[in-house]
Fold this protein.
Amino acid sequence: MYRKLLEYQEEDKKLKAIEDTYKTNEDYKKYNVAVRFLKTVSETKTQIEDRAGYLLSELDDLKVKYERLAEEQTEFEAVDEANEEATVVFLKKKSQELSKAFADIERDIDKLNAEMTELVSQYKKLSAETKAMKEQYEKSREAVAAIQKNGEGEKNEITNKLADIAKSIPAELMAKYNAARKSNKFPLVYVVEPSETKHCAACGTEFSSLESATLKKDKFIECENCRKLIFLKN
Ligand SMILES: [Zn+2]
């Protein structure tokens, strides 16, 4: 059962090597960073624009409130000039209320303005980054295209071979192999002697007596710890 899988693994190693040269290539890294950035930047900009729009409307509301208060103050000052004994207490209280209302609105306006300034600076920074990332994208794109063109033929050849070998491997086992490939370094498949059924040959984890028995009985176990595929030699 494992011979075909070992054959698959040998071929797959070559594919992994090509993928790794992509990953470690500086142009490729730069290209990927630029692509990821440019994909999300317009969304981020829209979020900033939406927030700015909201702040502006809040600011308008506050200005209306401010003007209304100013009108009230004018009316209040007109009453103040009359300065009748009976209204002194009331006027004092009203005066305090108005001062507090003005202070509150001014504080809110300052807060909004500060956030607006922050948003504008974020937007500017983002625009500058976008420009730089566009340049990075243009520069690295050609280099990446050249690498891909070189590797593509070889990759296709290997992929075809892999598909061919996979035909003789049970789908369930193939799925386990692919799962192991995602997070692991090669080798993914281990073949062990009957004397080596107590520990995982890949990560060294001690198997439970049940796992050990399963490996002996089924000639195969997927390590719970490292997900690698352990076969009993036959
Ligand atoms: Zn393991």
